[in-house]
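hey m, so remember when u said the tokens were messed up on ur end? i reran from scratch. heres the input so u can diff it against urs
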Amino acid sequence: MKVFKFGGGVLKSSKDIVRLGDILKENDGENIIVVVSAFNKITSKFEDLINAFFSVKKIEETIFNEIKSFHFSLAKDLFDDINYYSIELKLKKLFDEILDIFNNGLTNDYHFEYDKIVSYGELLSSTIVYEFLKLKNINCSFKDSRNLIVTNSDYTEAKVDWELSGKRIKEECDFNENNIYISQGFVAADNNGNTTTLGREGSDFTASVFGYVFDADEVVFWKEVDGIYNSDPAISSDYELLPKLSYKESVEQAYYGAKILHPKTIKPLQNKKIPIVVKSFYKNNDGTSIIDISDLSPDLYPDIPIFIVKDNQILISVSTLDFSFISEHNLGEIFSLLSKYRIKVNLMQSSAINFSVCVTNNKFKVPKFISELKKTFKVLYNDDLSLITIRHYNNIAIKKMIANRKILLEQKSRHTVRFVVR
């Protein structure tokens, strides 16, 4: 049994959905769970929609119509006139549900409403994919992930109830009816039936949940790249494809911001030593295998420099109003606010009278966090920054990445060096 995850980065047009179908045909006879993300950039569009509503208290019709037009246009490309009518009705129903949510009024709980609205990206994409696969005579069943994965009620960052989710998944996906199931990444539900989401990288995590429950032979993430490189090709011309990675090294890279997989995606599969494969959506290749290779080589394999860059960072420096030492009590207040606004710290550093955190500059959360900090502390910040991480660094690698950059903060350990730069 295998799990195939198709992300928004590869699902951008009608020809990509055709390619998805071809991949399933190439794996004919396998028991497969297909996890589908929202189409390219649609999650961001839904975020814009919900953010606009909380700002002006009405639906932003321009954004809504862009989302709607994209999906209907995509369906029009995939289905002939005879078959288009059926998918058109299903899409209209989903968009009517979205309008009903807005028209009935939203609560003041941003995270609760976020999950309810943004999850429609996955519901729309999986509906189109499923209907197209049926049209191409690929026998498959559609499963709403809200009926499979049970979480707590930490909206936007919900935690999986592994025992109950495992029971439901095995009951609903027994591979007796068909050998292929289509479901959504990112989306789940709490015990009250309210829609939840698993975090911004939650689609990959969903694939991990399915793989863990079924003790999958492998979990394959189909990407727009050939595999995992030691650097994003966009930031370096001499990047190398890594044919293998240890679980530990892949977790480290993901934690520091590598864009391929999220750390929480890797850990459940590592626990059962289930191979993870990252490979090209567009061509046949071996890609990168994340496996248990500690018996063959150091656990931090490979040891060539790994370059990771996170943009859109803001460095926030906090000090007490009377310039006394930053105490454990002060840190408790700061972290309480970080937790309140669900802001993930990418880097932190403390001195006698200052505490600095580098976070991704979410335009909705961070201003509120800073505003509340200012009630108790003196707060300074720099935005439009980048966070550069180099694993297995050497002097040449450091010079390459920080040349002509202004360094605002630096941290160095045995295996990793990090710079917050302008």
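this time it looks ok to me. The chain is about 40% helix and 25% strand. if urs says something different then somethings off w ur setup not the seq
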